[in-house]
Amino acid sequence: MLKNIFIRNVNEEVWNNFRAFIAKKYGKLHGIEGLAVTEALCQYLKAENELSKSTHTKTEKECIFNKKIEKEIPALKQAISSCIEPGGKAPKVLLADIIRKTSQVMDKRSINSRIEALVSIGFLKRDWDTSFKGDVFIVLGEKKNGKTF
User: What residues make up the domain containing 129?
Assistant: First the structure.
C-alpha cells in the first residue's frame, strides 16, 4: 500500500544530501525517492529493535565504577570519615590527597572516578552553594536505619 507523507521541520541540508545520494546511486529521483525513504525507515526500526534486545543486565549504578574501585570504597570511606566529620565540607584537593594516600593512585582521572563513585553511592554530595564549579563536597557519611549520620 502506498501512502503520501508530509514531513515538517526537516533539516534542509540533510534532506538535500539524502536526495543527492539517491540521485547518484540510482541515476534518478522520480519513483526511487519514496522507496529509499521507506528503506531508510525500515533500517532505522531494525536497528532500534536490535538495541532493545541488548544482553546488558547491569544497572546504571553498577556500571559507574569498576570492581577495583568497589573494593577500595570501604577504605576510602573510613579515611575520609577519620579526617572529616559527617556534615562537614571538604574541597576536592583534600579529597584527592586522601585518595592518593589510601588508593595509591596519582592520575587525576583515577582520583575523579573514585570521587564520582563516592558521590554515586551517596557518601559525598557536591556543595553547589559554596562553589559554582562543584569542587567542594559535603561528607554525608553512612546511612543507618534510613538516617544519615
Answer: 60-148
CA atoms within 13 A on the CB side of 134: 7
Rounded Cα distance between 77 and 99, Å, is 10
Mean pLDDT computed over every residue of the chain: 82
Helix (H) or strand (E) holding 115: helix 108-120
With a CB cutoff of 8 Å and minimum separation 6, the contacts of 92 are: 115, 135, 136, 137
Residue-wise pLDDT for 59-98, tens only, equals: 555 555 578 888 899 999 999 999 999 889 999 999 999 9
Confirm if 119 and 66 have CB atoms less than 8 A apart.
Answer: no
Q: What is the pTM of this model?
A: 0.53
- pLDDT at 22 > cutoff 70: yes
126 in the same domain as 82:
yes
Using only the alpha carbons of the chain, give its radius of gyration: 26
| CATH number, position 108 | 1.10.10
